[in-house]
């Protein structure tokens, strides 16, 4: 099997996934390895393929523009990066909807550009939008699963390894996006603790649905500690305590 950083690896990737969708994926892999020139080569091929094809779907256009945006971010050409990320958001919205988790990645990367350019109000608005999209998605799944477990319906033996509804790559992206936003929120926790707690609770839900109780508990504890430290309302503290109680009840049931 070819090495992950070899040209043969990228060509194999193209053959396995089909040329139209695989060029952006190969470019992303190259960029991730710091191979900017190689990434540009793949993306120029992708652009040529997409422009020539009449069968490329909105999702493929979105993928292409997202990777072009990331490429230009790596080159610190933020004007071009913003152009491509705006196109990514447009095509992803056409394919999945403006409030879909598949669209949220474009908002997130655009927020990072604004954050780096010290346009903090714009960055904050977009980070909030990304958080709200993930909160809505995960909360819908969390409510169903937590109610079922509370009623002591034995789902654990009948489920897949996770209940996120995401594949492995999407879960990794969710963790990366949400922990990045958390790091930014924590830098201003003294001013906006509610925003930090909001992201901590989203991460709690994500890890809970991934069946990672220890990580879910860690984020809930951090949220509770911050709520107490900032003297937030009793209602807010009780809401977070309920998350911890759910984990504790499941751990006790598991021990039995």
What would you say this structure looks like, in words?
It is built from eleven helices and no strands. The N terminus is likely disordered. By secondary structure, it is an all-alpha fold. Helix 1 packs antiparallel against helix 2 and helix 10 runs antiparallel to helix 11.
Can you give me a brief rundown of this structure?
It contains eleven helices and no strands. The chain has 256 residues and is an all-alpha fold. It is globular.
Number of strands: 0
Order of SSEs:
HHHHHHHHHHH
Mean pLDDT, nearest integer? 81
- Flag low-confidence runs: 1-27, 156-161
**Gyration radius from CA atoms, angstroms:** 21 Å
Overall geometry comes to globular
Multimeric state: single chain
Q: Give the helix/strand class.
A: mainly alpha
Strand content: under 5%
Please tally the helical runs, counting DSSP H or I stretches of 4 or more residues. Answer: 11
Q: What percent of residues adopt helix (DSSP H or I)? A: over 70%
Largest sheet: number of strands, sense, barrel closure: none
N-end to C-end Cα span: 46 Å
């Amino acid at each position: 099997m070819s090495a992950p950083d070899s040209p043969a690896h990228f060509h194999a990737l193209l053959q396995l996934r089909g040329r139209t969708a695989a060029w952006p994926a190969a470019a992303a892999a190259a960029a991730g390895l710091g191979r900017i020139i190689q990434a540009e080569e793949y993306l120029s091929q992708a652009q040529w393929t997409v422009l020539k094809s009449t069968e490329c779907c909105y999702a493929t256009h979105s993928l292409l523009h997202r990777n072009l945006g990331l490429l230009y971010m790596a080159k610190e050409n933020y004007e071009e990066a913003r152009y491509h990320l705006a196109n990514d958001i447009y095509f992803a919205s056409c394919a999945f909807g403006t409030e879909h988790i598949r669209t949220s990645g474009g908002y997130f990367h655009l927020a990072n550009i604004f954050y780096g350019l010290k346009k903090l109000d714009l960055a904050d608005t977009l980070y909030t939008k990304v958080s709200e999209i993930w909160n809505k998605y995960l909360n819908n799944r969390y409510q169903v699963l937590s109610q079922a477990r509370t009623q002591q319906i034995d789902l654990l033996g009948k489920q897949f390894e996770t209940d996120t509804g995401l594949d492995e790559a999407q879960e990794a992206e969710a963790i990366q996006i949400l922990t990045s936003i958390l790091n930014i929120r924590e830098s201003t926790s003294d001013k906006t603790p509610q925003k930090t707690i909001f992201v901590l609770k989203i991460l709690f839900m994500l890890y809970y649905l991934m069946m990672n109780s220890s990580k879910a508990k860690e984020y809930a504890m951090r949220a509770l500690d911050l709520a107490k430290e900032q003297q937030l309302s009793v209602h807010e503290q009780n809401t977070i305590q309920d998350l911890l109680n759910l984990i504790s009840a499941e751990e006790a049931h598991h021990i039995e």
